[in-house]
Every structure is written in structure tokens, then in C-alpha cells.
């Protein structure tokens, strides 16, 4: 590229040598030589002269010379041997891959006169497995995201088996997936949904600083489940949220806030806060403002900030606008406070008809107190009849008085699992 003419104000950098990191050239698991870039979080600098920050987005093009018999894939469209991505993308998603790769064409997206190809790139031995198992619904996943969020942001989508150190890497228009799950035949659709969702959140709309990584990973984790539910039924979302809650509760980061600016190493943020708690924050926000306002806000957020970089404040402002009310309390406690509500409920029946319920937040003082304006309680009466009531828990304690026509036998807190919280109930 050093021989190319430079435009006004441009800088031409000519360089050579073996990269220390981020551009892997060696043998794959099949024993054949390949080359793949793997830039996240700030490793593009080892082979590209870039301002290696997530908010420094730019168009990119690659002209690659490769051995005979190799195929090359990179960001954007292939135009006469040069791959060009016209949309600005973050440096950590600027990649290329090359090797003896098989390419299968899946049903493309049709946008009026524009066709967006969706192709699966694999080592030849893994092609049949990839097409029939993890990527069977590749086009349907993209179509579902378009329906929920907005147009696919790039001119093509390549889904590539590679040597990335991660399970998947959401490189813009050229997603790289780790090779070992292909070889072991353990790869499923979930990682495809997650990395595809990143094309909208993380790639097109990028976190301005690593402390706001949940805007990428939390969004991809949640829309993995939302898309899965749209394609396969609501149980995908319910089961996924239960797993995410259990993972978060068992993690070592519950004592840290979700927006965490203290970590200097971005890899430390690949944790249950950014992923699992981030997904839950979106789910609780959806429950708080309703489906209509939530998805309208998500679409406006994507439309407004596509091809740019944002912080959590921009997302909050969009959601407040679409909800028509202040949500500062919600974002303040779920993004900036550590932890989650630990609820202790005690109830007693003084007579066969009178029930007194006391709910207390017992989490550590350092986590603060959470506002739960619509805490749901389910009472099971002696006849088996179930009744749900709502308790506004605005502080650390709340009391609810109930009158019934029969004796209560059991009580449940948050029976539908609407909150990222734990609860113990003591008669």
C-alpha cells in the first residue's frame, strides 16, 4: 500500500516484518497453514498503523497477496481483489483471513435493488457440519435482527471458521469463530446469534470507552436470547435469563458496578457484569417501560448512533425520550451501583383471613438500596388459588397487609422472574 498516492492531509506508512501479536500465521487444527487477524481489544496496533481505540472508527480497505489456492476474506466487499469497507468501523474489528477455505452461499438479504450476500467460510472438512448445524438459520437470524432493530449495517456478511482466541469475534461484516468447536462438533446456534447481534451493537454502534462494554456485550447477549425466542419459542429467552442470573450471582464481580471505569485492562471487563448483568438490565428496562417503548427506543438508538461511538448516557437519553419519563433512578442503580437486591420476605397469618408481609433488602450496605416500584408477590391460598399483588419497595423495607377468604399456605416473591434479584421467604 506504500505505493498508493496519498490524498490531501493523508499519511502513508510503509512497514514490514513479522507481527508480534494479532496477526496469526501458522497451522490450523487441520494441519494446514492459515493467516487470521485477531485484534480485540487493542492489538490491531501490532500489525496496522491505527489509533487503537474503540471510538476511532474509520473506513478500511485491504489489498492482500496470498499463496495460490488460498482464499482471502476481509471487511467489506471484494472489488477486483481489494476488500473495501466504506462504513467507519472500530480498529478492533478491522481484519483479514486467508487459507484453503470452502465457501457456501446462504440465502442473501434483499434490500430493494441491493443484495447482501451471507456466506459461510470454513475449512473444507467442516463445511457440511457448519451449514447444517450452527449456521442453518444464518439468514433468518439477520432478518430477525433487522425486524427488531433496523437494517443490517454492512454490504455483506461472512461467517468464518478461524484461529481467534475467543469463541467468536464480531469483526464488522466478517465474523470469525473459533475452530475447535467446529472440529469437536459442539458448536451451536447461540454463538452465531450473539456475534451476529454484534454487527448492530458493538460494530455499527460502538462503546466510546471500554468501561461501557455492556453496550456491546450486554446487548449481544440479550439479543441472542431475543432472536432465539423469535425463532424457537419463548423458552429460549426464559431459560437463557435463568442461566445468566445464576452465572452473575456466582461471579466475582457482583461487588463492582456494571459501568466499570476502574479496570485498566479491557480483558478484565469480559465478565458477568458486561455480559449477563448487561443482558438483564435490558430485560428489566423492557419490563419497566413495556415492549412498545422498549423496541421503539432500541430502533431509535441504532438509527441515531449508527456508525458512531456512544456512552451509556446516550442510550439512557434515547430510552427516556421514547418512554416519555425520567429513568435516571433505573440507570443509576443498575449501571452505577454494584450488586443486586437480596430480598428477605417474612409473613405471618394472624387469623385465617389476615396476612402481614414484610420485605427487607439485606444486601451489603456498600451495594446501596435498590428502588423496586413494582415488586410482585404471589400468594397461594389453601384452596390452591393463586393471587398476585404488587408491593412498591421504594426503600429498604416495605409492608403489605392482605385480607382473604381463606388461609394462605405459601408465598413467592417475584414469581415471574422479572428482576435480577434473590429472595428468601420465611413463614
| Rg over alpha carbons | 25 Å
| Uncertain stretches of 5 or more adjacent residues | none
Biggest beta sheet summary: 5 strands, mixed
Biggest sheet strand line-up: 8-9-10-12-11
Q: In terms of quaternary structure, what is this? A: single chain
Shape: elongated
Q: In DSSP terms, counting alpha (H) and pi (I) runs of 4 or more, how many helices?
A: 10
Question: In what range is the share of β-strand residues?
Answer: 25-35%
Question: Structural class, from helix and strand content?
Answer: alpha+beta
Write out key terms for the chains shown.
427 residues, alpha+beta, five-stranded mixed β-sheet, four-stranded antiparallel β-sheet, 21 strands
Explain what you see.
This protein has 427 residues and is an alpha+beta fold. It is 28% helix and 29% strand. The protein contains ten helices and 21 strands. The protein has helices at 127-132, 138-148, 180-184, 189-197, 214-232, 235-249, 273-289, 291-305, 312-323, 328-336, and strands spanning 23-27, 33-37, 58-63, 71-74, 77-79, 82-89, 96-99, 102-111, 114-122, 157-162, 168-169, 174-178, 205-207, 308-310, 342-349, 354-361, 372-381, 386-393, 397-403, 408-413, 422-426. The strands form six sheets. Strands 8-9-10-12-11 form a five-stranded mixed sheet. The chain has a four-stranded antiparallel sheet with strand order 1-2-7-4, with no helix packed on it. Helix 2 crosses helix 5, helix 4 (189-197) crosses helix 5 and helix 5 (214-232) packs antiparallel against helix 6 (235-249). The model has no long low-confidence stretch (mean pLDDT 94).
